[in-house]
Amino acid sequence: MDSPLTQLLNRADLTGHVIGYDETRRWPAQDRDAILRLGILRKAADAEYATCEICADGEPCDLILDIGPDPRIHCPQHGLVRIAWERLQQWELDFQKLGLFLIGQLGLTGGMNTIPPGRIWQLGRRQVSGRTAEFFLVQGIAWPDSLDVLRAAPKLAGSPAPIIVCPDQLPLEAMWRESGRAFLRLTEWARIHDGHLVVDFEAYADLYRQTAEAFEKPLTPTPPERRERLIEEFCKTHGCKVKQVYTWAAVDRGDLNRWKNGDPTIPDGGEPAMRIERLLQLDQRSRA
Ligand SMILES: [Zn+2]
Q1: Helices in the chain by DSSP H: which ranges?
Q2: pLDDT tens figures, 194-226
Q3: Cβ contacts of residue 261 below 8 Å, gap of 6+?
């Protein structure tokens, strides 16, 4: 069984997620108290259904609110059963509060900025492995609209090798993995220890360093007369066809050909040429 913190972080990856009172009562008291004390949960609307407490594994039933002061349900086995109001409480993860918590925990400077429409929080920056890294917290990075969210956030899109904090899920779209972006999954790197939420950042920083170094490694453009040969060698090493080269580099076939021929419409240092060079020289794929 996952820890309460992991359950909460997994839930926060769902749209319109809530955590119900009954669920929190199943958590070990120490963990529940710690999570509630952190202040990263906020009250959501009360549940509109409840399960019978007498039945061991009763199905959720609609609430009946017009018989007496307390809500009731109609249990198929026990008839009308009274439900305590407190059992209807629900909470959701408050990303803004989580962001403020991370700023304090990781010692970030620059202040928090919520980027509309409210799925990305700019958390500030700090030195990591000898370079200044910007931090962003993202909700729903694997949701179907996540590329729209990225495109609407030029501060994130234009940040070199930033650290993207996400509850659990990683992006499914290759574009999220460009620009040396490194991902810090809280299910992997955060835990409750002695009643506090702790991020094992020192261990994570080593992984980040590798990602940032690969991103910053200077690429010398391949002279046009050696490009055809470079593609052939890559295909031979990887046992692949040219189709994989332009697919993995996320360019179209025409662009790859124009680059190979030194066509000025694909200039050195431009994004298509960089993707091709990163693939052929460093084996870094822009698309799976
Ligand atoms: Zn019952």
Answers
A1: 4-11, 21-26, 29-38, 95-106, 146-151, 154-157, 186-189, 201-216, 227-238, 242-248, 253-260, 271-282
A2: 888 999 999 999 999 988 988 887 788 999 999
A3: 224, 227
Please state, in angstroms and rounded to a whole number, the distance separating the CA atoms of residues 129 and 94.
Answer: 30
pLDDT in tens, 248-277: 998 999 999 999 999 999 998 888 998 899
Rounded to two decimals, what is the model's pTM?
0.78
> How far is ligand 1, taken at its centre, from the CA of residue 279, in Å?
61
Give distance in angstroms: CA of 73 to centre of ligand 1: 9
Tell how far the Cα of 200 is from the centroid of ligand 1, in angstroms: 45
Burial 153-175 (b: 16+ CB within 10 A, else e): beebeebebbbbbbbbbebeeeb
Q: Which top CATH class is 224-282?
A: mainly alpha
Where are the domain boundaries for CATH 1.10.260 in the chain? 224-282
Q: Could you tell me the distance, in angstroms and rounded to a whole number, from the CA of residue 29 to the centre of ligand 1?
A: 26
